[in-house]
Every structure is written in structure tokens, then in C-alpha cells.
Amino acid sequence: MAQHDELAMFCAVAELQGFSTAARRLQVTKSAVSKAVQRLEARLETRLFHRTTRKISLTEAGEAFYRHARRALAEAAAAEDAVASLGGAPQGRIRLAAPMSFGLTVIAAHMPAFMRRYPGLSVDLQLGDRRVDIVAGGFDVAVRVGQLPDSSMVALPIGRMPAVLVAAPDYLDRHPAPTTPADLPAHECLHYSYELGAHVWQFEGPVGEEQVRLEGRYQVNSSIALRTAVLAGLGISRIPLYLVKDDLESGRLQRLLPDYRMDNSVIHAVLPERGYVPQKVRLLVKFLQTALASDQQLEETLA
């Protein structure tokens, strides 16, 4: 067990490039991490890290050792998981990251059912619109919406998010409603700033695909804040249907260009590494796939 802990500490330092950050992830002291690495280096009779006052990085020997250590930890986790699965109910803790608005409105609504189904699992749900470093944050899985940057991580599609174009009646009283996407540059368009391609809106309409590049005086890094601005009559926005379906039904917002479907964002579960996926993570991903498919069926009646 002591050698297993040393490998885990060494890998954390290598991945996070720091003893303090590794200690925080593992919830141990910096001294414990430093001593574990020193014991490894003494036993192997080689230095595993280049250390300076500003930076820590793997030596050539350290890089080779890291590849094997990471594989050994994955195999150990797989072995423990295999035995645990034979013992009945799954056990363990899942660290899950999700966007703030989607997490508050959708993920959080489904988590009580997941917790009741698997009483042996605990979940640490962290919400935030800025994309976190999954490895540095020690997350088991992250839910991400929309385009993903190129990455070596595993991204599993778990659903789709319909988007609609909306404005408040107050705004439309002051501005003629657009009849085609080409009318949008003349309007005040509001944007979600964390979305890749936030200023390029794509439509599928009567004449096929259309793409419009738009500028705007207001952008915000929260979909909830974006909805607030639209409700206040500040302008037109492309916004997830789940956030505004009640507003559309009540008349607080009006849907624009209903003959043009907007690009539906793909929802992914992103895993920190390829290869072995713990049972607890597989169960959560499968649960979210099923839950989001049910949500989407309801939303498509309005989309």
C-alpha cells in the first residue's frame, strides 16, 4: 500500500507540475508528497524531477517511470473495481464538473435520483462556466456543452441541447422582428462569451444552411445572466431551450425565425484519460445519457 501511495503522489506531482498542487488534490501535506518522491528517487537511485525555484518537470528517467506508474495505478484501480463489482452495490466518490447554468438547471435536478439509485456512491459536483483542467482539478468526469477543443481526453456524447432564437416583446415593440437570418446584423445581438464560435450563428432553413457572423455590445459568461438580459429587452439571443421554455409558454419571450432550426450543441462527458474507466464513472455517464434523452424528447416538442 505504501508503494501504491508513493506512485499516486509521484503521478500527481508529474501531472500538476508542483508539490503543493499535488498535495491539495490528494488532501495530504506537501511534506508527505515531497518525502514520497524522495523515497522513490532513493530506491531507484535516480532523479525523477528537475527542480528550480519556478518550475518542476520530469527528467528523462522520470518520464519513462511515469508511463509505467500511470499504467500500474490504472491496473490497480481496475482490479479493485472488478472485486467491488462482485461484492454488490458500487462504492466510492465521484468528482463531477459541469457548467454553472446547465448544472444548476439540469444536472442538479437529476442528481437526487442518481444518489437514491446508488446509495454507496458519493458525488462532489463542482459548477462553473469556465472550463476546468480535469486532471489538475482531480475530476473523474466533466460535462461540457458545445464545441470541444482538440484534446487527448475521451469525450463521450451523452445528449444534445436545442437552442432557439428569442427576444422580449418589449424589444420587438421597438425593433421589427427579423424575417431571415440576414436581418440579424441590424439588431442588438447578445452572446454567451465562453462558447467557441459565440459570434457565428448557424441556421438550417428553407434554402439550406446559412451562417451569420454577428457583433454585439453585450456578452456574458453565464446563460442565466444572458436570459436576464433578454427578458429585460436588451436584444436578441440564441439561448438553450431548457432555460427559456417556461418564458416562451408564458409569453415573456417570443421565439424568432421558427422556420430556421439552430445548430444543436452536443453535450459530452469528458474523461481525463483513455483506457480504464471506473465502474462508478460508467454508471454516472449511462445515467446522464438516459436522463438527458428523456429531457430532450420533451424539449423537441417545443423546438
**How would a crystallographer describe the biggest sheet?**
5 strands, mixed
CATH third-level topology of the largest domain: D-Maltodextrin-Binding Protein, domain 2
Q: Treating each run of at least 4 consecutive H or I residues as one helix, how many helices?
A: 10
Helix-strand pattern: HHHEEHEHEHEEEHEEEEHEHEEEH
Helix content: 40-55%
Q: Give the distance, in angstroms, between the N- and C-terminal Cα atoms.
A: 54 Å
Approximate strand percentage: 15-25%
Order of strands in the sheet with most strands: 4-3-5-15-6
Inertia-based shape? elongated
Total domains: 3
| Mean pLDDT, all residues | 86
Verbal overview:
The chain is of the alpha/beta class. The chain has ten helices and 15 strands. The chain has helices spanning 2-16, 19-26, 30-44, 60-86, 100-117, 134-137, 169-174, 223-231, 241-250, 279-299; strands spanning 49-51, 56-58, 92-98, 121-127, 141-145, 154-161, 163-167, 189-192, 200-205, 208-213, 218-220, 236-240, 254-256, 261-262, 265-271. A five-stranded mixed beta sheet has the order 4-3-5-15-6, covered by helices on one side. β1 (49-51) and β2 (56-58) form a beta hairpin.
Task: Draw up the topology in text.
Blueprint: H1 2-16, H2 19-26, H3 30-44, E1 49-51, E2 56-58, H4 60-86, E3 92-98, H5 100-117, E4 121-127, H6 134-137, E5 141-145, E6 154-161, E7 163-167, H7 169-174, E8 189-192, E9 200-205, E10 208-213, E11 218-220, H8 223-231, E12 236-240, H9 241-250, E13 254-256, E14 261-262, E15 265-271, H10 279-299
Parallel strand pairs: 3-4, 3-5, 8-11, 8-12
Antiparallel strand pairs: 1-2, 5-15, 6-15, 7-12, 7-13, 9-10, 9-14
